Each structure stands twice: as C-alpha cells, then as structure tokens.
Amino acid sequence: MTQANPAIPAQDAASSQPSAGDVARAMFSKEVERALSYVADAKYDYGPKLRDGELSWEVTGAEQHSRGSVRVSIRFRPATSFKGKWGEEYVDVAPDGSVVARRVTRVPREDLPWVLMALAALSLSAAAVLIPLILFYEGGDKLYVAGRTLYMKTSEPKLVPFVLFEGPDTLGTVHRWAIKPAGSGTELAVIKVTLINAQSGSVKIIVDEDAAKLTTGDSQSHRPIDPLIRTYPTEDWYPRYAIAGFLPLWSQPSADGSGRTAITLNATEQVEGYMVFEVPAGSTFRDFSWNATDSAIVRF
C-alpha cells in the first residue's frame, strides 16, 4: 500500500490561528486519514501523467454532510520539480469508514511560459521591406505563397523526437521547457510560419487546431498540437534539439476559454511563430496548408 505523505500546512508564525487543514484533522482525524489513504491508493483517477509519479497531498478542509458522512477537501501536486497551481479534489467518507464518493475537480497545472510572452513578442513588425521582396521575386520560392489577403512563408518541416526551448514562467524566471509526443512511434514536426498582411485594412486571425494542416507523404493529414497543454519544465537538455527563440503562433490562453489565439494584423504587418505537429516517426512531408482567415498551401 502506498503511503500518503501530505505536505505540512504552512502557518504564519505571528498568528495563533490554525489552518483549515489543522482544524479538519482535529475534528475529523479518522475521516481525514481515511481520505488520504484512499487517494494515495487510487491514483488512477489522476490520469496517465500523474498516476505513476510521486505526489504530495495537503488537506484544505473538512465538513460533515447529511447522514453523518464527512467531505474531506484535498489539494495535490507532483512531489518534485513542480511550479504551478495545485490540483483539487474531495472525498466523502461514511461513518463506517467507507468511501462513498471521490471527485477530482482540478488537475495540477504547471506555470507556462506563454503568460508573459505576449503577442507583441511574436515579431509583430512592419513588413514594408519584406513584402516587395515577395511580390517581385521572379521565379518565386516554393516556401513563399500568396492567398487572397495574406502572404505566407514557411520553413521546411523539421522532424525531432522532442522540442526543447528556454522561456520565462509567470514570475519572469527563465526555465528550460520541453514538448514531447503523446503517443508511441511518433515524433514532432516543427514548422516556422510567417504571415503577412499585404492589404490596406486589418485582418483578424484565429489560431487553433483548425488553423493549419500538415500532410505527410502517406497522404495523412495532421492538425497542430496545443503547446499550452503540452509544454512542461525539464532538466534534460540536448542542444541539437533546442530551438532558439521558439514561440508558437498558437500560444496564448484565450479570454473566452476557447483555447484559441486571436491575432490582429494591421496593413503591412507580419506575425511569426512555430506550429508543432505530432506525426509518425520517420515521416516525409507533402504539403502545409493554412486555413485561418485565408487559404494558402506550401508544397514540399
């Protein structure tokens, strides 16, 4: 049986007031211990990212409900190398010690680098010099294409086992971060994308999983992954896989909770960033298509 190791509740030395966790332990000691023992033995409910790792638990409260059951409120997080918001759950313990309900209401969430990396950091700049180079480039470059409203330039897809980059957390401290494939037998394809508004008015671009598509050599289409939920801090560092200045186009949590990034480009402005796709290992690539606000295809 795995033993729970709840963190010791912090208490202000200048105050004699006990914490909510202390009060819960004093009033419902048996129920609290039962709840902690139960969650430590039933980590499967935390999902694949957490259930096999070491966790820390902390009791945040307890209250008696109808028929004598006690609801114990608990917060939890990875035991090491974690900076972010704790997860939360509650466990209902009956008078006979049986657990009658358990619900995880929030999973732990790492502090991510995107909060401080505002859209202004996405190289939004006047494109008056770049646009004529595209418009009058005789013979053309297969990585430059034009839609009805937007011009687009991409890099060749780069296939890597994982992405490493450096960036600040919400407090401004620079950390090393990583994105890795979620499945087995897959790798990440990274493409740098520049979008340019060559029109006289402003355009709004919504970046999400439907904004772009990467087609591999086997004619299978792949949508971009959401870097907000796939980025995690890392201590492992391999320079060959590190991308200097890495910042994805799909990079900011939206105010409406939709998970989309909204970018407004005024006339002759451009935005630049990376798109990341998870594809079968060893893939070759046929084309990259952009579908947000305008349509454009780059063929490799």
Q: Residue-averaged pLDDT, rounded?
A: 80
Largest sheet: 6 strands, antiparallel
Overall radius of gyration: 25 Å
* Principal-axes shape call: elongated
Q: In angstroms, what separates the terminal alpha carbons?
A: 55 Å
Number of helices: 4
How many beta-strand elements? 21
Indicate the structural class.
mainly beta
Outline the low-pLDDT stretches: 1-15, 115-134
Secondary-structure element order, N to C: HHEEEEEEEHEEEEEEEEEHEEEEE
Helix content: 10-25%
Total separate domains: 2
Strand content bin: 35-45%
Task: Offer a few descriptive terms.
single chain, about 300 residues, mainly beta, 6-stranded antiparallel beta sheet, 4-stranded antiparallel beta sheet, 4 helices, 21 strands, disordered N terminus
Structural notes for this entry:
The protein has two domains: 91 residues; 187 residues, no CATH class. The chain contains four helices and 21 strands. The strands form six sheets. Strands 7, 8, 9, 10, 13 and 19 form a six-stranded antiparallel beta sheet that branches. The longest helix has 13 residues. The chain is elongated, with a radius of gyration of 25 Å.
